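Support case: adenosine-5'-diphosphate complex. Customer-provided input:
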Amino acid sequence: MPTAEIIEPNKKAAPKKAAAKKAAPEKEKEVKEENPIPAEAVEEKKEEKAAPEAHNGDDAYVSLRHIDKVYDNNVQAVFDFNLDIKRHEFIVFVGPSGCGKSTTLRMIAGLEDITRGELWIDGEYSNDRTPKDRDIAMVFQSYALYPHMTVYNNMAFGLKIRHLPRAEIDRRVREAAKILQISEYLDRKPKALSGGQRQRVALGRAIVRNAKVFLMDEPLSNLDAKLRVQMRSEIIKLHEALNATTIYVTHDQTEAMTMASRIVVMKLGRVQQVGSPIEIYNKPANLFVATFIGSPAMNVLKATYDKGVINLLGGHKITLGKEFVEAHDAFYAQDVEDCKKEIASIQEKIATLKSTDAALEKELAGLRERLAKAEAALQGPHDIVFGIRPEDINEGKGEGEEYNIRVAVAELLGHEYYVHTDFGGIDLVAKIPLTHEIKIGDTIGVSFNDSKAHIFDPVTEKRIY
Ligand code: ADP
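Agent response - structure generated as follows:
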């Protein structure tokens, strides 16, 4: 679908709260046509939804509140999505295919209905607004340029159909072309452009609108690897120059890490963590985030915990400090409390039922098991999951004990090796700077940066430390 069809041109935003309460008569008609609710009811609904302070202002420029999406075939694609996006932020939704990224983006664009929850854009309740009333510009993976039009006309088209003055259109197109360094191609047709240039035209078409929010759905995934890296930095520069609030969807963790002000990691329709790239890298909230972000992925090893000491397979021991012991005890004390609360809430639900409910009984049994394990973890030795990133393993003696490993695979990337070894049945990967040649079958000594270790609970998979 061409972007031109989706976006309203540089429309002056109506005063915030007044707009939410008082729709202009034409808008009322549009809402009514889209929605079989009588106009008075729509008006009433809008009155109720006047923006509370927290949904307003620069810190909540785009605000998603408890958003669910259930498709017609009863597939729930998004569960209770909550996020306040600051004005000018560059937000990246990242996660594996099918985790609900595009669905969420399309709900923000108005291309999918919101099943439950609220969407606020610049202080206005926007669930019922048509895509073109949301003042949003969208760039897709497919550039969707008009093949018979020149680059200039492709960029000008959306403004022309909205009857902007010719001089204003010309000014905006030339300015966008300059920013994107495509001024010399304005007279060309898309077929005479490379993939990267076409994607720039698609970006240009979005830029000329001066929209409130830019939405980008995997805009680089059609490009080859080299061009993707180049366009990545161009989009970052573009964001620096325009400072437009941007929401960018990708399955590529490197794009997320390199481009985002804040990353939203998703899995199976649920937000796993929201944070800056550094926060997400340093303190992943759970095992999924830990292994999804970072390349090669974090090494994950089974281990046991006993009074502040981590015992790895093969008799290796890691002693973590007092801080870790405190975090461990606080984690399990909290988990005991959470389990008890959840158990009580489910028991209450069951008590109100006339017949038995297998799903609730199963959930209850799971919670009781988790509670027992959490209580035991506060008393004595128990299983934990130990995570260490490949870059936190050094050659030679470092912070921790030195292990001799046999090199199973040595991948040379230029300035460093990815060295694989069998570590108690696990393929352990270490990033070792190139100082000497490393070959398959070599034995080398490595040590972990113990202070960079990540510890997770095997039951909930949440981060302990
Ligand atoms: P992502 O963008 O993360 O790859 P999507 O948002 O496209 O994921 O899809 C999330 C889930 O919703 C998937 O299970 C997908 O199959 C399902 N889904 C997407 N679009 C539709 C649709 N139009 N009807 C039914 N299910 C859909």
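The longest strand covers residues 76-85.

Case will auto-close in a few days if no follow-up is received.
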